[in-house]
Amino acid sequence: MIGRFFLHRRRAGPNHPLGSEVKMGKAATDRPVPRGTTVFLFQGQGGFHPAALKSEFETNAGVRPLFQLVQHLCGTEFGTDFHASLSLGDREKPPFSCEQLGIYLGGFLWGRSLIERGITPHIMLGHSFGEFASLAVGGAVSFADGAQLVCERIKALQGLEQAGRMAAVSMGAEQLEHHLRDLQDHDLEIAVINHPEQAVVSGSEQDLARLDEKLRLEQRAMHRLKSQYPFHCTKLLPAVPIFRERASRIRYADATYPIYFPSESCVQSPGFDIAGALSRHLTTPFDFASAVQNLYALGYRTFYECGGGTLLRNLVRRTLREHSDISLHGALEMSPFSQATSIRTSTPDAQIPADKMEPVAIVGYGCVLPGALDSDEYWMNILEGRCTISRCDAVDPFFLEDLYNEEAVTVDKTYSPLAGYVDETLLDQRFASIGIKASRQYSKIQKMIAVASTEAFERYGVSDNFGKVACFYGATPDGIREYDESLVLKHFREGIEKLPEASSSSKERLELLQRRFGGGTGNPESFSPAQTYKVVFNDLFRAETKTILVDSACSSSLYATDLAVKSLMTGQTDLALCGGAFAASAGNSALFAQFRGLATSAVRALDDNAEGTVFSDGAVTLLLRRMSDAVNAGHHIYGVIRAIGLSSDGKSPGVNVPTVTGQHLAIERAYSGSSVDRQSIQYIEAHATATAGDVVEFKSLTRAFSTRKPDLEKIRLGAGKSLIGHTGWASGGSAIVKMLYALKNQIMPGQTALHRINSRFQIESSPFQVTTTHESWPANTAGQPRRCAINSFGFGGTNAHVVIEEYCPASIASVPRDQHAGADHQDVVICAIRTIFPFGDSITDNLDSHFLRFKAQALKIPAGKLLLPDVAEQMSRSQYLSLMGCEDALSMLKGKGVDPERISVILSHNDKCDRACVTNLFIYEDRLRRLLREISATAGPDAWLESATDRFFTTLRKTHLPSGPYTLPGIMPSIVSGRVAQLNDLKGPNFIVGESSARSADSLEIAGLYVRFGNADVVVCGGMSLGKHFAELGEHHDSEVAEGIVVFAVATKKIAEKYDLPIIAPLRQIHSGSAHRSMDLAA
Fold first, then answer.
1. In terms of CB atoms within 10 Å, which end of the chain has fewer, N or C?
2. 356 exposed, middle or buried (CB, 10 Å; 0-12, 13-18, 19+)?
3. CATH domain 36-160+257-346 topology
4. pLDDT-based confidence at residue 1072 (cuts at 50, 70, 90)
5. What homologous superfamily is domain 162-237 in, according to CATH?
6. Does the model's pTM come out above 0.85?
7. Handedness of CA 356, 357, 363, 366 (dihedral sign)
8. Residue 1083 reports pLDDT greater than 80
9. What's the gap between Cα 1014 and its chain centre?
């Protein structure tokens, strides 16, 4: 790669200090790179970690002489104070001399610490300037001589400060080379290749600005580096002879451990000209990616990064992303002194009483997202501005033929060719590497959840003795591709096979169709949400595990996080796993297209030219503990959950039309229900889907933060969906992961793919600012920790606002812990019970006696509730049942004066509705027909099967409406509760508890938590059953479960007495264990 992209620019003429051409071949005394397994990586520019160095100095007396030497050199050679540079504020730039010597010192300390722990390097690899630390750790120079060598390099560079700068570009070297040719008349040079999709250019500020402008027009990301000089660039030629002469005075020795010089294509050996190599490297390009690939080819699989952060590990991972057999480690994370630093906070002074409300610690996290099989890779994509949305036909070759129509709106088709996919081949490799003992063959979404959760547990660092555990996960039956596909196949095949005169040949062809159709070709029940999620969590914990599935549409992962927090605060759990996952079929995109909500070229969140969103695969897992438990156990705390606010939109023009009032209420509840001062918020990760909802969200934020003090910095606003698309039920969790990295690295991420801020925002007069470049995250006001907030707003009007902050022990210790309703164990009472089941004339007569079902005419919208006829005719039976079942309780509550703003709706719902199954059949009709044609092409025509297929779809179309703008709201499970909230103007949280073994018990348990914690005065809760799929087609079932609904109204006894509500029975206790679940309703 170096020869291809770099040699053409190295001919410098006879006046070049090193001759007419800078030679990049091997030295006369080279030694080939040996085979081995273990690599030590040393950081270059950007590898200065003052906080970690300061911690080493304070906790490890044995290394203080090295610090004293560096302090002496800084003072005598440059007049700077190294110790003072370790305590500078975030926005204060350290002197260049302190920074360079600090990088060298850190690399040496953490490299030697690995060796002292018994880890033997088979080769050393420095990233650019990291070569200096590799020389010292490898034994080619003493620490003192290496430090002096760094000083000579700094002095040789003096006077070249205006030579230029460096910038990282998110593209490969070949592609960047084409851009540089198009730019013309420039002095830019490709300096570094970090990985196959990122190169670094060096050159003048003026030409870097020209390149940046060109790339922005093409929606390409370029990130300016903090480097003071244009390294690996001919602009530094004047420094080469000066540094070479001074470097020649240093004493060198044969290295104890092999030191790899990629630019020289060899390792150091006796007689090797180290001074010449180091001086040439100022102007020689550096190909880190090729170096890593070469080492992998020689058997190297284990990489240790000798420094803070994960920069080099991420580069290795990106370079070797197709290989699942590599192992990546961080020396700083393994240092006994850095561990002592975190454990030190568990002294008695830092202990927190657990009997009162307290912040919640995030002790583990992991994710699988488009273009990222772990959170490190996701953060790297954010820094590089790398969009991981792709064309559907690149993954599914028949997508355009089967599922797409370029017209803006076409029945049962999507007009967007885009989606965010998790690469299944890479996912399979990663899944195979985690070693989970799966109890059965996993689907794609199960593998995503398992990989994300395994990463979270690796960060947590505890493999057993979890205490009381529960899982709360955002999930929907509509978010499992294999489930949709298996149901389509099942119903198509059953519908065809029950037609008369089906031949054995036709049945054989249906068997072939079963095998060819897609990933979901098995029994649909094995792909149902209950099976999909619970199986993974049971396998992870190696035991039956309490699992609650939460469906509030796109806010689900944050609603699940809220339940996890409540479970911890009441002592029901000691470790709470939460998050969400989504891997929908093409049907989701086809239905969203019906109201023009999709993007055709890019997701431009917050942009004036936003045209819509794109749906993506995603899974995110967080591990939470009570802060006191996490601190006392010495766990690493990655972030702190300080506040959560939830709400519903209530009345709106439609369940898919967001409201400022509802969103604003969620934000207000987050701050009014906590001790967090909204003036301390510095960054907000917006929900921003690049739809019309962006403007609604901005208005709600502006209203909530309208009192921001003018002397404070404007709040930075960002939205990650421009990079990864909309991960649906995992989107709030992915935003949390993004913010955890931003807080850790003290970087405010810039907004990608932003050409012009949405003009309807009127952002200049708002308290917000959107930038396109990454910024340093400054310290917060009044000594408070860095703090951010996350919005997640679900389709159907379910809103969540969460506040996250960095972990600062002193700040946590000062948090007021007001006694909360949740800690009082208030009595919870049942104030109303309502059941609706088919009986008499309401029972349909086309099913057998084992399955009682309502006639369609018996399902009605309650009197006084108005809906457009087009909306009503697209509503599922479950939405009708929920409105009917909740009506009596809500009428009673309103008659007693209970504020609708303080009423919540939580219902258990058992699955996809019939209408959703029929709609997916229409969407996949062309795919089914194409596959049958392909089978006929090889097996011969089958006239009966062709005719049967025509009859099947003709019959369906006579009895079912085509998809339209009201279809998706009419069939989404989350709208079962959302429709109740909308038509009754309820603004308490509303959501669906997914399928489980004790549906009403789940909703009752959660309702008890919500009224005890004050999220609502009254919760209308319960469960419904709709039997098996597709009863509308007249199938007969053996199930004895009737169609029906049971509804309760739940409140604390105090609230019931306040509003004079009837107390039917106390809800004394709800046991929700892994194997036992019961309710005690005492009369």
1. C
2. middle
3. Malonyl-Coenzyme A Acyl Carrier Protein; domain 2 (3.40.366)
4. very low
5. Malonyl-CoA ACP transacylase, ACP-binding (3.30.70.250)
6. no
7. positive
8. no
9. 30
